[in-house]
Amino acid sequence: xxxLKNSSFLLAGAGAVITxxxxxxxxxxxxxxxxxxxxxxxxxxxxxxxxxxxxxxxAEDKFMDCVGNKLQASTGIPVQPNDAFVDSMFPWLEPSTAxxxxxxxxxLLARDAVAQRVAESGVRYIIWIDxxxxxxxxxxxxxxxxxxxxxxxxxxxxxxxxSDYQAVVWDLTTARTAGSVSxxxxxxxxxxxxxxxxxxxxxxxxxxxxxxxTQLGAFLRGEDPSAPGGTG
Length: 232
What we know:
- This protein is of the alpha/beta class.
- It has one domain (4-220).
- 33% of the residues lie in helices and 38% in strands.
- The chain has helices spanning 4-23, 61-75, 82-88, 102-109, 112-121, 204-220, and strands at residues 26-34, 45-50, 79-80, 123-147, 150-171, 176-200.
């Protein structure tokens, strides 16, 4: 059994590690490209869709829901349910047939049936979201002992995750790409073992969701992110 003095020393060391972990656990990068002016009007809605890929990898559903909910709550811009919108446009926005380039949107909107359904939906912008959250690195070690009257863990483990997402905004009234916004959040989580394992989690996906929703809101309202109060 460690003595009280040794335990105090270990806890003090853990405190130093914890402080370092919490002081710089996440970094973020934001980027924006604007091709046309945007100013969404009252009554106009947006819909968020996961950009389809041949290999089947798309943005996670929970991330899409998070961005949509935060965008609508913070701006009041109506965000239509993506499944309902895709169903209403069947079969043109199915993963196997959805356009992946601006020229494809132009051709799609040239179809009278598509143009009519878009007008009925009230959707002004389709926002295609691409990206994912993945673990990029890890290290350290942890050992735990459990026995009669004694138990505990010692060690330090860490892992790094990256949430990298891009949103491309398509204007359905002009059949042009209005631009894109992106966020890249990297964070390091840690598990400190000093008698009791203490987790310190960098919630990179939640941070990426909040930042992308804020950035999209400013983009759709035509705000300059470099201006005071912008998202830059």
